[in-house]
Give the backbone structure.
Amino acid sequence: MRRFRGEAENKVDAKGRVSIPAPFRRVLEEGDPDWTAGLNPNFVIVYGRRNSKCLEGYSLSSMNDVDDLVSRLPRYSKEREILERLLNSQSIYVQVDENGRIVIPPRIRERAQITSKAMFVGMGDKFQIWEPDSYRHDMVAIDQRLSENNFEDEIYSLLDYNESNSEKI
Amino acid sequence: MRRFRGEAENKVDAKGRVSIPAPFRRVLEEGDPDWTAGLNPNFVIVYGRRNSKCLEGYSLSSMNDVDDLVSRLPRYSKEREILERLLNSQSIYVQVDENGRIVIPPRIRERAQITSKAMFVGMGDKFQIWEPDSYRHDMVAIDQRLSENNFEDEIYSLLDYNESNSEKI
DNA sequence: TCATTTCCCATGATACACCATTAGTTATCG
DNA sequence: CGATAACTAATGGTGTATCATGGGAAATGA
């Protein structure tokens, strides 16, 4: 399964329309079971994450994967109910139009404080939509963490460590 | 699995096109699950490493290996989130064209300060793309380190150490 | 009705597919 | 065995499809 990769900063017009970056569309198409050549893919935007100011886009198939994970939690457990709430009530089904654009409703745009520009960020099985400056701040924070006492080397070496010691989580 | 070996300095034209060295293409083909004779391989370029000024090319299968390693880190851990960000947002899916070339987008070329030439450097399961002068500087720096109090011998002796002590290197 | 949303068409820039050339290497054949 | 043909690799150039974006007409709905 292809992954969402890369960054793209696109304009949001007065009607709330934004182009989905073409490479992301390819991934969405692949993840939409109903999609065939000539059609436009549909997908899901989740806006429920509280501690990061961005929206998250899931292809239909990867949204299914997440739903499956949730359904493995005990029925009626507090955790499951909250996740169900965040993932289901705080999300919308989105249709890509003929020109590769979507419309983000005002209420949801406000969530991420998106006004005139949107930064699309690949995250593998999902992508994020940020207000560009917020994203850059977030990225600077990551850079700073990485530059602190060889944190980058440390992080990369975690890979080797885990390679030999743990199973897949 | 065949490995990326050797160096090659190729021209980058005004449109950002560069030839992938033919031997590297052979490795990329082998690492692309969808590739068959007659087709051109696809792969991934990662530009997220902070403390080295080069781009890194991964075959699809070795990129998968890296993704798998990351997914063994605890979900939502700081380390994992940072790695996911670096590996996914700071990377692009690349398609080799009929003539064995790729296009490196301007933004990414700037990362490595590549203008008119690119140095391809084999690194086993991945390869690096350098601005040729930067690469030569890096190589000189390595030579100097190696000449300091038998560092070279020390380094090679690490191999013996690991051979006897760990399972996987 | 008036505002908002949805659909359709237009456009400039860019990216991509396609064709051409050169040089070096290997293969073929008289 | 030497000459030439066939191939592959790297590189240059060109036309066309695609992408991101803007604007307006039709449809919707409060």
